[in-house]
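Structure tokens please, single chain.
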Amino acid sequence: MIREILVYPDKRLREPSQDITHFDASLHALLQDMYDTMIHKEGIGLAAIQIGVASNVLLINLVEEDGTQNKENLYEIINPVVLEKNGITVYQEGCLSVPGYYEEVERAERIKISYRDRDGKAHEKEFTDLMAIAIQHEMDHLSGRLFIEKLSYLKRKKFDKEWKKKQKVGK
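Here you go.
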């Protein structure tokens, strides 16, 4: 089922997420709804809080060179914990909760995380490049943070001004 995505400045996006303790049919239904919503909105990642569920669950499904998203490349990451971060990279990010806005953000180039899958099985994996960036972006959501908070003071002021103007036009 496609769910509504919360859009900035919705206060629910600030809510910290809680760990999943039951790896059951309700979690599997949430994962399916998240996947359907992410694909429908043409996103590469989605955190549960973005659909109003304050649970430590995120999905990442990068786009292939031919523009397709293959479900076999989907990562369902539950209760993630960063074990290591190395290097610095800058990438232009966007967000389904801040539609139409893109800006360069600095993040770790390589991360190692521990997480659980849909069945509760523990995993430990290292990620680089866009996958590392996407995971860090979605993990920020789990802590109630948005990528716009990583912008410099001047870029944030510019964003706030453009966003308010866009909201007035949209109403």
